[in-house]
Write a structure and sequence with these properties.
This protein is about 10% helix and about 30% strand. With about 240 residues, it is mainly beta. The structure holds calcium ion (2 copies).
Length: about 240
């Protein structure tokens, strides 16, 4: 007879006798990690008081950190169902778009023009390698302050001259990119292009939209533009 079989018989025959001799009540369950259904469940203590149990012909110890479950005779508890998967992230509901245009500041235009863009995608967007495009071509974005990764809902500024922008708006504490922002006071089409060169957004403005040198800027409202007081880094505050 093979040693394993001999051991199984020894467990099956001797350990119940030992349990009876020591008058120790068997536990009411077995470790949940032993998920298979045994024909025989026979908890018995060994000499040191450690519990063992029978799974068919296998004599196995109950781990010290086991969790005992109520057990019907001869059956293991059903394994716990896996936890439900986490809910999917909210779908992208919007886009990265130009949200505000300061094309004709009150006073000198040169160096004081800027645009604002908003990440309305619901996910962080990295603007590294993106470009701002106007009628004079593509313009690279150079990070001046903040981070190229824009959290969902955040606004960032693309300024022609970040130092002058900060002089005009000293309370601004967000991300600023330096680029070429020299916008026609008559109007033109502005675009954002991602790192692959795809056009992510485009908007066409005209002086007839307003905000031509009167201190206001143009705010993106739905698919249109509306003149109102500038709000760099914040949503439009329309009257
Ligand atoms: Ca201008
Ligand atoms: Ca704004």
């Amino acid at each position: 007879m093979r040693p394993v079989v001999v051991a199984a018989f020894a467990c099956a025959l001797l350990l119940p006798l030992l349990a009876s001799a020591l008058a120790v009540q068997p536990p009411k369950g077995i470790n949940k990690d032993f998920g298979s259904v045994p024909d025989v469940v026979l908890p018995v203590p060994n000499i040191s008081g450690q519990f063992w149990f029978m799974l068919g012909s296998i004599c196995a110890p109950v781990p010290a950190d086991s969790i005992l479950h109520p057990l019907r005779p001869g059956h293991c508890p059903e394994p716990e169902p896996p936890p439900p998967p986490p809910p999917p992230p909210p779908p992208s509901s919007g886009m990265v778009m130009i949200s505000e245009i300061m094309y004709s500041p009150d006073g000198t235009d040169a160096g004081h023009e800027w645009i604002e863009i908003v990440n309305d995608t619901g996910e962080p967007v990295n603007l590294l390698s993106w470009k701002f495009t106007d009628n004079s071509g593509d313009h690279i974005l150079t990070l001046f302050a903040g981070d190229t990764i824009v959290p969902p809902g955040d606004f960032v500024i693309i300024a022609d001259n970040p130092a002058l922008f900060m002089g005009d708006w000293p309370g601004f504490a967000g991300t600023i990119f330096d680029s070429v922002v020299s916008l026609s006071n008559a109007g033109e089409t502005l675009m954002l292009k991602n790192g692959a060169g795809d056009i992510v957004d485009d908007i066409t403005y005209a002086s007839t939209d307003g905000a031509d040198g009167d201190g206001n800027s143009l705010h993106r409202i739905d698919d249109g533009l509306e003149a109102a007081a500038p709000t760099p880094g914040a949503p439009a505050a329309l009257p």
